[in-house]
Amino acid sequence: MNRSSKILALALNKIGKNTESEQNKTHNSYCSEKTPARAVTSIKKKKLEDTDVFESPVLNESGSSYNYGVESNIEDLQLFDVDDDDDSIKDPDFAPSSPSSIDGSNYSEDTRQAALILERNLCDNQENLVSTSVCEEIIVPEEIVRKKIISPGTTTQPDQRGCGASNTTNPQIENEIREHIKSFPAYESHYTRRDSSCKYFHSDLTLSKMYRLYCEKHQSVASISTYSKIFKTMNIKFKKPKLDTCHRCEILKTKLEIGAEDEEAKSQLLKEQEEHHKLADLAYKSKSKDKDTGRNDNSIKVYTFDLQQCLPTPFLRTNISFYKRQLWTYNLTLHDCVTNQAYCYMWDESVANRGGNEIASCVFQHLKKIPSTVNNLIFYSDCCAGQNKNGYVATMFQIFSTNSSISVIDHKFLVPGHTHMECDVDHAAIERKKKVSSVNIHHPRDWFQLVRSIGKKPFIVHEMTRIDFLDFAKMSKEKFTWRKTSEAKTKFVWRDIKWLRFTTDFGLIQYKTSLDENEEFQHLNIKKRGVNVVFLDEIPVCYSGPNLISKEKKKDLIELLPVIEKSYHDFYLNLKSDDIKDNHPDLTDDESEEEN
Fold first, then answer.
1. DSSP secondary structure string, 406-468?
2. Can you give the pTM of this predicted structure?
3. For 427-442, how does the pLDDT look when each residue is reduced to its tens digit (9 = 90+)?
């Protein structure tokens, strides 16, 4: 039995009748040397008519203070002194002689309830009790009451949720950020086939560059996190630089890393991945083999061709250029894989656009320069439907093959995502030169001169003019019929085509769905009734006048004149414009290369 229980038992044993109670009596407890004296509160005993009422100190329902809410019909309660030398207190085996327990039946129910409340308070706060003696009255230290009142378990604090500092951005700063973001030229996708309100910034621009320019322009600077948060709400994206990454490979890799549902599904994914890699390897091996054949046979020429990313004109190193729309300069590179010579066909958007018809025209201009000793041409390209893998380019090859001494023209397509070619190396060299060169680029011809200076074997640049662009799109529609099935009644689907072959047979195209040499060619008849031949001089010029640019772009270019060399001012002032949308040609809006 602990000390508090012993004291309580002694108190109950000495309860007697006909004792006078003291009211509102306060005593100081006798403390040990280590324990300071504390003010205490007495237990009250008061007379209500003929009944003595004993009130025990307990917490009220709110838990904020003590009151005396337990009544007992005890006739008399005689409190006593306890001597520190009392062996009964120190005896660990001490037990009250009568009653035998606190819960004994010798006391009324109210008395036992009061005793239990006292015992609980004494036990819970034993460290605060007086260690040397007890006053005549059993006491409850005020410090205990004070601690009970301020205890977190007995008090209720107001709900603080939602009372913190507001994270709302100042409306003025938010408007400044939005207006700053809108000040950069944004473009719609050129190749998108679905309605979308999303616009794009050029890949040369980054969020960190935009924020740096914002800080230079405004004094009330927001944090970059606030700037980024507002940017994400404006439905604008940065154009991703063109990378030869395979979307299919990434999907398969992710599924395998996450884990298939069962072994059978995992085995199927591994098999699919292996087949995909085999197709990619087969394409590279086919190109390597054709290159070796071309080196050993002068009658065979092997080329790769692709468009470079747009070159901004003028190319300025001042901050103002980020806020202005610029004129685009285009470059289609054909790389001779036998001689390792790069041929660049370049023009700007005031001359022509950049699509399947323009690509066909550039390749056509190169075909006219092929030596008569060559009778087999092999071209490799990616599967971009808007540029290389379409009816316009096929029409061009078909017309040229029936009007030249070349017996066979093969056009082979690499696997999407696995399209690294020699012309891509040429484009990388141009990009490196662009970053380190001190040459001022104020006019498209400055780009032409820069490209001519690249490489151990200088690139050969052909400046495309308006009359060089021929309307193969019109020829494709008027002179040929693109049927949906082959002569063997199999479906002809552009997405599945991997190899096209053009011969001197007019209106007949051979094709394969793989680059496997052992696979037989299928035949597609595109001949139109009544058309037996198309001569080269029948092909009309595509553009009858200057190519129009948007009025917004013309306005921005005029505003850049102060930082452009004066001799080029007339070029920009004479550009033709109209109220048309300003699309960025590089943007494909996540369009698959294989769509057509």
1. --EEEEEEPPTT----HHHHHHHHHHHHHHH----B-SHHHHHHHHHT-TTTTPEEEE--GGG
2. 0.63
3. 999 998 988 888 889 9
